[in-house]
Write a structure and sequence with these properties.
With 127 residues, the protein is α+β, with helices and mostly antiparallel strands. The protein has three helices and six strands; from the N terminus they run E-H-H-E-E-H-E-E-E. The protein has a four-stranded antiparallel sheet with strand order 1-4-5-6. A two-stranded antiparallel ribbon has the order 2-3.
Length: 127
């Protein structure tokens, strides 16, 4: 059996920005600065996301641009953080960015490594 190889691109410093990189940079601005417009301009109307928070209001899938704005407002109330991309991968349907988040959570030092998976939700503005 011949093993199929996925068409995956790793973004390196100085390379042409791809959709995942552009989306992550917009996501980063939303988290760090509260500026959601760029990110929301990239997603489609059926945009949905999952939040890794053990809070009743954020369990299960979250839907829509307004809900994303609510998440950003909530997170910025309790979390001041800087995001640093570590690995960026993309194929024709998916993008993934593994990133480090460092800052302050509820007045305590916070450091975590997380991933965002972008599943075929880009609008035409990002292509």
């Amino acid at each position: 059996m011949k093993k199929q190889q996925a068409d995956i691109t790793k973004v390196s410093e100085g390379s042409t920005q791809n959709r995942s990189h552009q989306a992550f940079q917009s996501f980063r601005r939303a988290i760090e600065e509260g500026q959601t417009a760029d990110f929301l301009a990239l997603v489609t109307d059926d945009f949905h996301f999952y939040v890794p928070l053990p809070l009743e209001d954020w369990k299960l899938v979250q839907h829509g641009k307004q809900r994303f704005e609510e998440l950003i407002r909530f997170e910025r109330e309790v979390l001041q953080v800087r995001l640093t991309p570590l690995v960026e991968l993309e194929d024709t349907n998916y993008g993934m960015v593994v990133f480090r988040a460092e800052g302050i959570l509820n007045n305590n030092p916070y450091n975590n490594e997380l991933a965002i998976v972008l599943e075929n939700f880009f609008s035409n503005q990002c292509e």
